[in-house]
Amino acid sequence: MTRGMFIALEGGEGAGKSTQTRMLAAALESRGIACVVTREPGGTPGAEAIRALLLGVEGEGWNPRAEALLFAAARSDHVERLIRPAVAAGQWVICDRFVDSSRAYQGGGCGLSDAEVLDLHRIGSQGLLPDLTLLIEVSPDVAVARTRVRDGDAPDRIGGRDAGYHAKVAAAFSAMADAEPARFRRIDGDGTAEQVHERIVVALDAWLSAP
After folding, report:
1. How many domains in the chain?
2. Whole-number Å distance between alpha carbons of 154 and 111
3. What range does the domain containing 133 cover?
4. Which of 75, 76, 154, 170 has the fewest beta carbons under 10 Å from its own?
5. What is the rounded distance in angstroms from the CA atom of residue 179 to the CA atom of residue 188?
6. 91/83 Cα distance (integer angstroms)
7. CA distance 131 to 104
8. What's the whole-model pTM score?
């Protein structure tokens, strides 16, 4: 049986990852490619329970190391129970966020080192990386406007952090894409959902046709 592919969509708040994840899966299925759509944190019952602990607005929240450990635990269950089996069965997994979000948010945003985050990932998920990571980048004013529409006056615990934090997250994502050009494709996320989707399809087709 032919192995499937694992594609992650990454980006900061308001990048439109969830919408683009669904649109990409629909486009692939129209080509006869079986897809599993999932998200992080989440994707399995255990990981979804951890998601509620991480993103809920009640209480004082988690210190950066505890937060990173919880994300790594959720990801470990997600990889073991959903991602690896689906790819092994020949399906394409399209995931809204993966380990690069931990590298950007708990690393760049919260100050943990990239090595620390990747060590947790090595222990929890055997270092699994996507075959392709689509980094959707949006200008700050677009991100703020989209986030307000999405969340109103009730952002989650991480999305509601200040602009300085989110600028560090964006810079961390950019640095990763610069450092790993073979895995990353940068997508201009400004514009309509349809325009962004078209850019993603073009990038994916170019990646698939590359030698």
Report:
1. 1
2. 25
3. 6-206
4. 154
5. 18
6. 9
7. 19
8. 0.92
